[in-house]
Amino acid sequence: GENVEQHPSTLSVQEGDSAVIKCTYSDSASNYFPWYKQELGKRPQLIIDIRSNVGEKKDQRIAVTLNKTAKHFSLHITETQPEDSAVYFCAASSRAGKSTFGDGTTLTVKP
Amino acid sequence: DTEVTQTPKHLVMGMTNKKSLKCEQHMGHRAMYWYKQKAKKPPELMFVYSYEKLSINESVPSRFSPECPNSSLLNLHLHALQPEDSALYLCASSQVDMGFHNSPLHFGNGTRLTVT
Q1: Coil, helix or strand at residue B58
Q2: Does residue A50 sit at the B interface (CB-CB below 8 Å)?
Q3: Which of B68, B105, B109 to probe by mutation at the A interface, max A CB count within 10 Å?
């Protein structure tokens, strides 16, 4: 089955710095790659996603890149703010609806 | 407001009890999911329903029994659970586009389950 590895497990940055989280996946059939943010005690919420026919997508301070050949994708957050502090999960999804999540990255943005 | 509603928010049950978790969405999504999440861990897929039919069962023990009465409702029936089943149970829904599940998951707030 699909295996998703996510790095780093924890990330601490100063407010205004950039943060990068990387994921690799194993199943070449995976074709949808969402990123979810989960604040403490809350549900995961989608922040950005990318499909396998696209190499990069940007939404204001957040961007995602996908390298299908290398089977890895990354989340980039620029100009970080304290409210960006949360656990971020990458996921790789098959067409059948099976989403495999990475182990998560705890991002702390220090004011 | 959460578009996927789960009840109850909290549930404490003994190992001999029978209880049910409920989930409802009115976004017209035709795929619904149950995930289990332990503390400091990612959500772990349990079941996927597509057009009200069970399409994925991730080898979940039979003490968990899913049910999809219609396109808006999803239940998870619990019976003879073990203490290690204590977790946050998340329901999610998504669109299905031409049979493909390539859309974001919309999660409910979850049911915090404690098995004593």
Answers
A1: coil
A2: no
A3: B105
